[in-house]
Amino acid sequence: MQTELVVAGSSDADLINSLLDEYLLELGSYRDVPSGTTTSAPYPYLDAYWSEPGRHVFIIQYGGRSVGFALIRDPTSTKSAVYQLAEFYIKPESRRLGIGRRAVRAIWKRFPGQWEMQVHTRNSAAVQFWESCLETVASEPPQVREVQGRDGRRIQFHFSIEDTV
Questions:
Q1: pLDDT tens digits, 128-149
Q2: Helices 124-137 and 99-110 sit at what angle, rounded to 10 degrees?
Q3: Separation of first and last alpha carbons in the chain
Q4: Would you state the pLDDT for residue 55?
Q5: Domain harbouring 86, CATH code
Q6: Which residue of 34, 59, 72, 155 has the fewest CB atoms within a 10 Å radius of its CB?
Q7: CA–CA separation, 68 vs 46, rounded Å?
Q8: What pLDDT does 62 receive?
Q9: Residue whose C-alpha is closest to residue 23's, from 110, 134, 123, 105
Q10: Residue 147 and residue 103: Cα distance in Å, rounded?
């Protein structure tokens, strides 16, 4: 079966909201401080992905089924020289099949350059996933530091992706 990265449009908002609900509920279990939304309804940024330049929404499909999503901000949106992986989610039943790796590789192939992303320190599986992905794709070892968000400690990765991914 094939992993596909599909550009989402505003007509896909219900699907993205549903996936975002699952993601935010899971994410809540990794926060040090119970802060932030746990459903898509009050998620403050989603509408901007349908209307502001520099924001990209992707549906991750596997075998024709929607199994995840990614929200990307490019330098136009971040007002800096980096891309940001704002949110990335693969449904639990679709993990450990290589879907996430193939999806993120497709994202980085589409958007080479400087990147930044954060992962909750308590989400050790996600930290390991991203370290492994970066080890095989980043043009040099990422800069890694711990940052404090309003919901707790996070690992921040800053890295470069060449256009030869």
A1: 999 999 998 888 889 999 988 7
A2: 50
A3: 21
A4: 95
A5: 3.40.630.30
A6: 34
A7: 15
A8: 97
A9: 123
A10: 26
